[in-house]
TrEMBL record:
<dbReference type="InterPro" id="IPR050362">
    <property type="entry name" value="Cation-dep_OMT"/>
</dbReference>
<protein>
    <submittedName>
        <fullName>Methyltransferase</fullName>
    </submittedName>
</protein>
<keyword id="KW-0949">S-adenosyl-L-methionine</keyword>
<dbReference type="InterPro" id="IPR002935">
    <property type="entry name" value="SAM_O-MeTrfase"/>
</dbReference>
<keyword id="KW-0808">Transferase</keyword>
<dbReference type="InterPro" id="IPR029063">
    <property type="entry name" value="SAM-dependent_MTases_sf"/>
</dbReference>
<keyword id="KW-0489">Methyltransferase</keyword>
<dbReference type="GO" id="GO:0008757">
    <property type="term" value="F:S-adenosylmethionine-dependent methyltransferase activity"/>
</dbReference>
<dbReference type="GO" id="GO:0008171">
    <property type="term" value="F:O-methyltransferase activity"/>
</dbReference>
<dbReference type="Pfam" id="PF01596">
    <property type="entry name" value="Methyltransf_3"/>
</dbReference>
<dbReference type="GO" id="GO:0032259">
    <property type="term" value="P:methylation"/>
</dbReference>
Length: 223
């Protein structure tokens, strides 16, 4: 591609992101604003919409979200469950789980999906869950969440279940340093994401695809 095409791609990303933001309901927009005001910046709105669509397309009924104040992704996944099944949000930060619980209070009356918020480290909580009970796992937030969640994914997911990693390009934490794209960026998140890509893509138990959606989505489907 030439420079013009790369410029067009950059402009397209901005257009899609703004379009996704404009499609948010007033309640969702209010939750996003309140969460960011509380000091927890939220990820890409377009990325959150893709997660919702993935939940819908796969017919997921049991979803785990591992994050750090990842409110908008969690709420979009609730929408993708179409009023069925259950969603468990796992957040190790006291601040993050408090905000998620408040968000659940807002949406609970409008959905029949069972919502549960757990304040725990992924590496501690996930091993306690029943094997083969889950259709979808979404991982976001702190670098430590990613490897711990993938370690449990083969056991927790049903056949053809999906695990999705957000911010795989490490732009969310490493925007100023270049993230995974910049070999000089040795930040915790960028380093962890490089290792994650190698680990997940070389695992013969999964079929994977990396997309530039949001700040990078890595989707792995259990074979």
């Amino acid at each position: 591609m030439d420079r013009t095409q790369y410029t067009n791609l950059t402009q397209a990303w901005g257009f899609v992101e703004n379009h996704a933001l404009s499609r948010q309901t007033p309640a969702m927009a209010q939750i996003r604003a309140a969460t960011e005001k509380a000091g927890m910046p939220q990820g890409s709105a377009a990325q959150a919409e893709v997660l919702s669509m993935l939940a819908h397309l796969t017919g997921a009924k049991s979803v785990i979200v591992v994050g750090t104040g990842s409110v908008m992704e969690t709420l979009e996944l609730v929408r993708g469950l179409d009023g069925t099944g259950q969603l468990t949000a796992v957040d190790s930060s006291a601040k993050g789980i408090t905000v998620i619980r408040k968000a659940f209070d807002v949406v609970q009356d409008s959905t029949a999906t069972k919502l549960r918020a757990v304040n725990a480290q992924a590496g501690v909580f996930l091993p306690r869950l029943n094997a083969g009970d889950y259709d979808m796992i979404v991982v976001a937030g702190d670098a430590v969440n990613y490897a711990a969640s993938f370690e449990q994914a083969p056991r927790l997911l049903r056949a053809h279940g999906v695990i999705v990693f957000t911010d795989v390009l490490a732009f969310y934490d490493g925007m100023n340093s270049g993230g995974v794209l910049d070999p000089a960026d040795r930040s915790e998140k960028a380093t962890a994401m490089r290792e994650l890509l190698d680990t997940v893509e070389s695992d013969e138990r999964f079929r994977t695809v990396l997309t530039p959606t949001g700040t990078g989505l890595l989707v792995a489907s259990k074979l």
